[in-house]
Amino acid sequence: MAIGAARPRQLSRSMDLSGVRIETARLRSERAVATFWRWWSEGGCRRTTAAIESGHARRVVPEITSLIEAIDPGLSWEFVPASEGGPHRLTVTAAGVPELRGVARRWLAQAPPDDSAWAYADLRDPVSGCAMHFRDRRLGFDEAEVVVDVGLSRADVTVHHPGFAGLVGSDPSIAAYLLLDAMCGEAAVETWVGTIRSNATAPGDDAVSLYALPGILREIEQENTDEAGEPAWQILHGDTSAGPMVAVVRVPLVSLSAPEFDRHVAVHVPYTDVEDCGLPGSASLPGLRDLEDHLVDRLEGTGECVGAESCNGRRLLHFYVDSTTPAHEQLRVACSGWDQGEVTLTVTDDPGWRKVQHLRV
């Protein structure tokens, strides 16, 4: 049984994007991560192991909770006692909040190597068993049914369970999310599930068992992975107030795919060969492709391009970069040679990848 401190899932999270405050919060978080691992190495690991093996695991919960909350109050954590001779596992997770994915990953990056006693993770694995407990009530997996609306790269899921009856406030939504995590694992849910809804009433004929959902998500993953096992790219078409739009996007567009890239750089590129529909013509297309390749090369692994939108004589390139590096300034300098108009950049701290969610379909 997992023991830990789970925060209610935040369905949305507002961020103060003031540069100074964001930087201060990150430095404070990094110091708290270092404090946690110092505590762990200087006796916390030994005391936690002893508490688990003596059957008094809850004795260390307040101390660990305090240390994790110092990193970020929105994080959740748990440890799962060893089974079948394996190690205990300590997990610190963003608990479904995209903005916290980088924080959890930085915690994991400072962890010691796994050994015979302890393993470390920032994502919950699927659980074994036939039920989970939430607010002192048992939610059996076999009682849960889901209605799945499958898109190109995500599935919106409505979870039906009679045990949701009587839950109030945000609790039904939290319980639905935790049921999906328990069945599919946190990585699959964050990567391939979009909107999650809860319902205590019996579903219609289009519902399937909760046990079917992992297979559905695996199919979505396979359809969005290329032959080399790399993320696939999608071509999207749409209409805007400025005219037709064509977008090319990398899948999946979620912060979990690169949590260290927490800053969005929008590169606005004008082009001179404009077709009647506003899209780039044959004289501009090679230059646009070369510019994108040049920008990616200049980043040298400190960021990546995840999508491009073309409309009304302009191409918008979506980059995510590591905010601890000068990557956004490197992009600005690399655009200076463009000869089809003035390139402008908009830089926004966006650890939750909110700036590209309109392209996740």
UniProtKB/TrEMBL annotation:
This is DUF695 domain-containing protein. It comes from the Bacteria. Residues 247-354 form the DUF695 domain.
